[in-house]
Amino acid sequence: ASIGTMLVIWMVATPAIGRGWCSWACFFGGWEDGFSRLGTKKPLKLLSRHRDIRAFQFAFLIFIALMSLMLMAAVFCEWFCPFKVVTEYWPILDVRSLIAGVLFIGLFVAAVGILPALSGKRTQCSGLCPFGSFQSLCGKASPYRIVIDTGRCTGCMACAKACPFCAIDENTITAKKGQAELTCALCGECVGKCPVKAIRWAFVFDKQPKPAIKPAIKLAIKPAIKSAILAKTGRELGQFARTILNPERVFVFTAFIFSVVISGQFSVDALNRIASLLLVSLRVGG
User: Fold this and answer.
1) Per-residue pLDDT tens digits of the chain, which is 286 residues long
2) Is 29 exposed, middle or buried (0-12, 13-18, 19+ CB in 10 A)?
């Protein structure tokens, strides 16, 4: 039942938000996001390594897939998942569990805590998580993309520095690719950081900047008053349609609703645990 439920969630999430799952719905990604926002100065600069980090993530996915098939076991969960520390940590009873425990703790401290805090990047999400790299491939089924207006872009690299998933690098900008790389998680950090507003959400079938909007209704020979009224009505209807169908609003609304549905039970459970802990503390203190 648990496997079936996760498959259903994945099948819904993939066409709905693609790899936006990693930045908007993943219940583990919040740990990294929190650590990555600690402090304002980031001494560890990874901009020149973005491409290498992306390559390592896909190489690690292939390694995990091959090892899992060879051993018929969930290799990542048994040996590499850093979130074992906060979810289902196994007791250390022998040498094997000791080694696994050291890996769990080491990866959590380094990839989830220290590196994000020093670099501002979600290093586990963008370099280690096999589900993230797999979702990058499946995310092609999503209708949303982050596109870059190459004509307006000044090459300041503010977007690349801000991207927590290493999905924009110097080559992305200098080669004028016009969109973020495959590992983009649609978090929107680059959109907010671009000083010239050259980056935006877009539907996959609409990658180019939109032309200036002209009145939808043009009348060659009509009375001036009627023409003005119809033109104004056409502009208002067009503006309403553009507001409703704006890919940014549609995506954010979809991602928010999806994350609320997914996290609903987790939130209730967390509040119950906190309440229980407080009650136990009060009883012990009393």
Assistant:
1) 667 877 888 888 888 888 888 888 887 888 899 999 998 889 999 999 999 999 999 999 999 999 999 999 889 988 888 988 887 767 788 888 888 888 889 999 999 999 999 999 999 999 899 989 999 998 888 899 999 999 999 999 999 999 999 999 999 999 999 999 999 999 999 999 999 999 999 998 775 544 444 444 444 444 555 555 555 555 555 565 566 678 888 888 888 888 888 777 777 888 888 888 888 888 876 6
2) buried
Q: What's phi and psi for 197, nearest 5 deg? A: 55, 45
- As a whole number of angstroms, the distance between CA 76 and CA 99 comes to 14
| DSSP annotation of 41 | -
For the question of whether the overall pTM of this predicted structure is more than 0.90, the answer is no
Q: Where are the beta strands (DSSP E) in the chain?
A: 144-148, 199-203
Instruction: Please tell me the distance from the alpha carbon of residue 167 to that of residue 22, in angstroms, as a whole number.
Output: 13
Structural contact between residues 115 and 123, judged by C-beta atoms closer than 8 angstroms:
yes
